[in-house]
Amino acid sequence: MPRYEFCCEQCGSFECFRSLAEATAPMPCPECQRIARRIYTAPGLVRTPPAQASARYRAEKSAYEPEIIHTYPDKRQKRPAPPIVHQSHGRPWMLGH
Predict the structure, then answer these.
(1) Which residues fall within 8 angstroms of residue 25, CB to CB, at 6 or more apart?
(2) For residues 36 and 86, what is the distance between their CA atoms, to the nearest angstrom?
């Protein structure tokens, strides 16, 4: 269901989800019940990848509520490097032999 934006002369703008059949029908303001006019805005067609949306949310949230770090990572503990494994499968230019 699409989201439409309306503007009430007294209360300001608000958004409402409506079916396509109701797109042109008048919309009463949810606060004062006056008829509000529809504002034509750009459609929200771009879908943000989840990782980017999460990063953006954390960045916006940290502007008002900085994250509190309870523990600091120990820099002395390093993970061992994975072993290097060499596999020989013959000569790559001799396919099918």
Answers:
(1) 18
(2) 71
Residue type, 87: Q
Residues 1-58: tens digit of each pLDDT: 788 889 998 888 898 888 888 888 889 998 999 999 888 877 766 677 888 888 888 8
**Paired tokens of 5:** 């934006």
**Lookup: tokens for 2:** 């699409």
Question: Look-up: residue for tokens 């072993």?
Answer: 83
Domain chopping of the chain, boundaries: 1-59
Q: Which residues contact 39 (CB under 8 A, 6 or more apart)?
A: 5, 6, 7, 13
